[in-house]
Structures are given as C-alpha cells and as structure tokens.
Design a protein that fits this description.
Distance between the termini: 96 Å
Strand order of the largest sheet: 1-2-5-8-11-14-17-20-23-26-29-32
Number of helices: 2
Strand content: 35-45%
Structural class: mainly beta
CATH superfamily of the largest domain: Single-stranded right-handed beta-helix, Pectin lyase-like
Shape: globular
CATH class of the largest domain: Mainly Beta
Largest sheet: 12 strands, parallel
CATH topology of the largest domain: Pectate Lyase C-like
Number of strands: 51
Number of domains: 2
Length: about 625
C-alpha cells in the first residue's frame, strides 16, 4: 500500500474512534440517575442527623436532609412538629419530570411551626427564591401544615425569579404578619418568575390588616386550583401588582372562598393584568365583594361561578376593560352585580337574582333537577368540566356544578352491600352479645371541620375476625360532606392491631378538587413501610358530598371495595384475593385516624373544597362473625 495514502486513512479511523468514544461517554453522562427517597423524623421516632436518612434510620432535621436532595429525589417527613424555617433551602429540580419533592409521609400529620430563623424570629415558614433566585424551580411541597404563628411576614413567599413551584395539599395558617402565600416576582414584563401551581390547599386565618390576603399573586401564568380559602384579613385570592411586572394569564378555578369579614375587601380580585380567568369557584358569605374586576385589568373572564350571600356578588370597576361575565349563578347577595362602567364588558347567560334551587346552600351548592340553571348556559372555550370533574355538555348548566345526573359511575352495581344480618345488640364498652354477629349497623358519628367524633366510646375494641375468613366481614362509612381531605386520606382502617399507628390495612381516598378522585387500599407494616395492595382506582369524578365507602372480606381471603354514589346505588370498585390479610382475635376495624375518640384530617373536612357545617351527622356500620 502507498504509505502516503495510508496515513490519511489511519487518521480518519482514529478520528472516528474518538468520535464514537465521546458519544458513548456523553450517553453515559446523560443517563438518568435513579430517584432516591430520604426520610426525616423527630428524635422520639429515631431521627438523628447521624443516620443515613432511610425509613428505618431517618434524619432528624429537615434543613439537614435537604442538603442531600437532587432532581427526582423525595424527602418524606414523618409525623411531628418541626420548629424549622425553610429559608430557600429546598434545592431546585430540572423539570416536572425531575422535580425535588418534600412531602408529609402518607396519612401522617406533619407541622412546620418555626420558632427562630433568618430574621431572628422566622421571616416565613417557607421561602422560595430569596437566595437562589431563578434556580429555585420545579419544587413540590406536599401535604404539610405550615403554621406561621411566630413568623414576622408571610407563611410562604415565592420571590426573586423563583418559578415552577407547586404547593399542594398543605394547610397555611396563622401568618398574622403577612399573607398566607405571597407570590411576588422580580424584573419586568413576564420575566419575573410565575408558572407556579397552588393546588388543594387550606388557607385560613392569615394577616392582620387590609393589605394581607390568603393568596397574594403578583406574577403571571399561575394556577390556583381546588383550594379552600377562608377567614383571612382581607381578600381570599388577590391578583395585583403595582409595579411593572405583568400579572397575566392566571387561572383561578375550583376553589371554595368564603367568610372574609372585611367589608372593604372580598373573596377574589382580578386586577392589573390581562387574560386572567376565574371559573368553577364557590364564593359565599363575604362581607364585601364576591368577585371584583378593577385596577385596569383587561380581558378578565368570570365564568361558571356560584356566588352567594355576599355584600356585592360581582363588582366591575370603570377601569376594567373587556371583562366577560358568563354562566354564573349570582344569587342572594345584598347587591348581585355592580358594573360602574367597565369598557367593553360582556354579560350573558348568567342567572342573576333568580332562585337556582340549590340542594342545601351553603353546605351543598349543587342544583336540584328542576333548577332554571340546568342547560341554560353558553359553552366557554377551554372549560370542559365542572367543579366535580363532570363533563360540561353542549348546553351546560350555569354555575360551578353540572347536575348529578350528568355522571354515572363506570363500575358494576351491587344489591348485597351492606348486608342485613341478624342484628344483635353490640355494646362498644362491654363487647358483643347475642349468638351470631358482632354488629354496629348505622351508628352515627359527627364531623366538625377536619375532626370526626365517634359516638360514646372508642371503636378500637371492635374485633376484626375470628381465626379465619370463613364468613364475610364488612365495614362502611357514609360521609356528610365531601369525604376526606386532598391527597391520600384515611377513610377506613381494618385488619389492624390498632386504629392508629402501623400494622394495619387502610382505605385511602386521593381527592383532588376539579379532577377525578382515586381510591386505593394500602398496608402499613409494623415498621411503618407502606405498600399499595389495590389500586389506585380512578372513580371518574371528584367525589361529591353524601357518598359512602365500604369494604368486605370473605373467604379467600377476597377483598371487595364499594362506593355509594349520590344516586343511592352501591358500586363495587375493586375485588381480588389478598392472601396477606391477617386474621385472628385482637384485630380492629373502624374509621381510623390518630386518636381513638377524636379523629383528625379525614372525613367531611374543611380542606380540598369540602363544605362541612358543625356537627353534621354521618353513619358508620360493621358486621362480622362473633368469636
């Protein structure tokens, strides 16, 4: 071979080899890292910053644990109260596919109540963006009680270009020095943060003056969805910015906003921005304004809301331009609508001052079958479901809800649940009597806010089974309000060594207002590790008030899960063999919760849009063979 021709060929082969090697290295570098789970627990539960942060050997403090997190990682916080301020210490993710998540451990109550912090006293409970700016992004904070009783300013603050922050299933309360949550960007135009998601939170008792609100939103492209907002100092949801930052294209939907007592403020205000949209909201019992459009806001839309019992239902100021008011029920307000000259405002297909025939306002704003709101609306582009997740038809119902008949569960109906056995007297204190069954059938309980109180004595003495599953054993609970809070909340506990703690099976409802709810059955072992045994099962709708859930275990052991919809029918949503279900004396069955006589954070609660009047009555029933 000619040596002069061989040299270029060799050089080309070498370059090709180097190129392929670099590609392989690049592929290795970009290969996704496996997500990791870390855990934090109080010292009494084994927490120590000398531990590796596993479920069996958790860290002690949240801020210490946050230093280990990278994109796609999750930090689970075990039950307890933590006196820590999270002052922009949660690291950012890279996308919603690889976020950093900080969340309460399933079905456990976690409270952040800082007593000291960056300002000497805590500035906030949680801050996003103060130090790291735009790098504070793609973070999920989930299921934590954020108590600002000692904070100087807001409960939660998102600032300084922080963006894509998701706060969900949290309770934000007692931040008297500021807002419940303040989302304030930096910069100008639409570059100052935003794109945040505030989902299914319970926001109440924040602020001490007219300037402080439940949510104060001053950025663009945010979603405020499924929150329960009440008893804040000024507005419930406030969108406004005095400076150059745009407050555009925000969505306020599926929220319950009520009982704001300052007559100079109101429930929801859309101001100083373009293209903001409030829909599928319930707004009631506010001394001032239900929904207000002003401060040069342009092209604001107020559609499919139910606005009831306020000072003024809807107020459109003269400096609001291009407002659209459509498909709203506006009823029983001192003044239903005040339009003081908004330029180019459109008012159509609303039901104003006409009795909409609510089922039971203000505890149930669904309309009855003879309501004049049914089929009287005009479709609104982009809105395809109501507050319950029910599809909006071509002739939609005015207000936040379609009619109950618009949805039929997609599961088989049953006629043999709950059973009607030989009824024996069962004394919860003394134990069972009679020859055949241990039974509580249709016993009542009461709900008040997020608490559920069983009658008389505890259910913990109720035995789950004899030594086998030769006959069926069942339990059910009927909830007066929309059942359970957002996220995985306990409906029933069964086959447990107790009704609180671990070593038990639980029926969970994952309820997301405005989206479809899911139900699952999980097992907590003696170490507290959780495993899904059945589900999650999509129910096809956001679970409405006055529904019931139940379980039955028969020989096999075969587990069946039931749901009673508001049409009065029972549907079987799951049936399957669960070989690891325990049997034997001493196993309990009941409503579940943290304490035997006052059960927190489940059933009828005030979070996630549920509307529960004090001391509403539900029912609990069981049947299983006597030992």
């Amino acid at each position: 071979m000619n040596r002069r021709r061989a040299a270029p060929i060799a050089s080309a082969l070498l370059l090709l080899l180097l190129f392929l090697t670099s590609c392989q290295l690049l592929i290795e570098v970009r290969r996704p890292r496996a997500a990791r789970d870390f855990f934090v627990a109080p010292a009494a539960s084994g927490g120590s910053n000398g531990n590796p942060g596993t479920i069996g050997a958790p860290f002690l403090t949240i801020n210490y644990a946050l230093g280990f997190l990278a994109p796609s990682d999750t930090l689970y916080i075990r039950a307890g109260t933590y006196a820590e301020e999270l002052f922009d210490t949660i690291p950012g993710g890279t996308s919603w596919s690889a976020p950093v998540t900080v969340k309460a451990y399933p079905s456990e109550v976690v409270t952040l109540r800082p007593t000291a912090g960056a300002c000497g006293s805590p500035c906030f409970v949680v801050n996003f963006g103060q130090n790291n700016g735009a790098n504070t992004r793609y973070i999920i904070l989930d299921g934590v009680i954020l108590d600002g009783a000692s904070t100087l300013y807001d409960g939660v603050k998102i600032e300084n270009f922080a963006h894509h922050i998701r706060v969900q299933n949290c309770e934000i309360k007692n931040a008297l020095g500021g807002n419940g949550l303040l989302d304030t960007g930096s910069g100008s135009g639409t570059t100052g943060g935003g794109f945040n998601e505030l989902l299914n939170n319970h926001v109440h008792n924040n602020g001490s003056s007219f300037h402080y609100h439940g949510f104060y939103i001053s950025t663009a492209n945010n979603i405020v969805d499924g929150n329960h907002v009440h008893d804040n100092a000024s507005f419930g949801i406030h969108m406004y910015h005095e400076g150059v930052l745009a407050v555009n294209n925000n969505i306020v939907r599926n929220n319950n906003v009520h009982d704001h007592s300052n007559p100079s403020s109101g429930a929801i205000i859309l101001a100083d921005g373009d293209g903001n949209h409030a829909y599928n909201n319930l707004v009631w019992n506010t001394a001032g304004l239900g929904i207000q459009l002003m401060y040069a806001g342009t092209n604001s839309r107020v559609t499919y809301n139910t606005i009831y019992g306020n000072g003024t239902g809807v107020y459109i100021h003269s400096d609001a331009t291009g407002a659209i008011l459509r498909n709203n029920i506006i009823y029983s307000n001192s003044t239903n609508v005040t339009n003081v000259g908004g330029v180019g405002s459109v008012d159509g297909s609303n039901l104003i001052g006409v009795n909409p025939q609510f089922v039971n306002a203000p505890t149930n704003f669904h309309v009855q079958g003879t309501s004049p709101a049914i089929g009287a609306g005009t479709p609104v582009a982009g809105i395809t479901t109501d507050k319950d997740g029910v599809p909006r038809p071509a002739a939609p119902t005015i207000g936040a809800y379609e009619t109950a008949s618009s949805f039929t569960p997609g599961f088989p109906t049953v006629t043999d649940f709950p059973s009607t056995p030989v009824i024996d007297t069962f004394n919860r204190a003394a134990g069972p009597v009679g020859p055949n069954y241990q039974t509580i059938y249709g016993d009542t309980f009461t709900t008040n806010g997020t608490q559920l109180t069983p009658p008389s004595t505890t259910y913990t003495i109720m035995l789950w089974t004899p030594g086998s599953f030769g006959a069926f054993h069942e339990a059910w609970a009927e909830w007066p309000g929309a059942p359970a809070c957002c996220g995985n909340s306990t409906l029933l506990v069964f086959a447990g060594s107790a009704l609180s703690g671990v070593d038990q099976w639980r029926v969970y409802l994952n309820r997301q207002v405005g989206l479809t709810s899911k139900i699952e059955v999980g097992r907590l072992d003696a170490a507290g590790s959780y495993a899904v045994m059945a589900g999650p099962i999509d129910l096809g709708i956001d679970v409405p008030p006055n529904t019931a859930f139940g379980i039955r275990v028969a020989s096999g052991p075969t587990l069946s899960v039931y749901w009673k919809y508001i049409d009065g029918l029972w549907y079987r949503v799951y049936q399957g063999v669960q070989a690891s279900l325990p049997a034997g004396a001493g196993r309990r069955i009941g409503l579940g919760g943290l304490a035997p006589t006052t059960i927190e954070n489940l059933g009828g609660g005030t979070c996630c849009g549920a509307v529960v009047a004090p001391s509403e009555v539900g029912r609990f029933g069981t049947i299983f063979p006597k030992q």
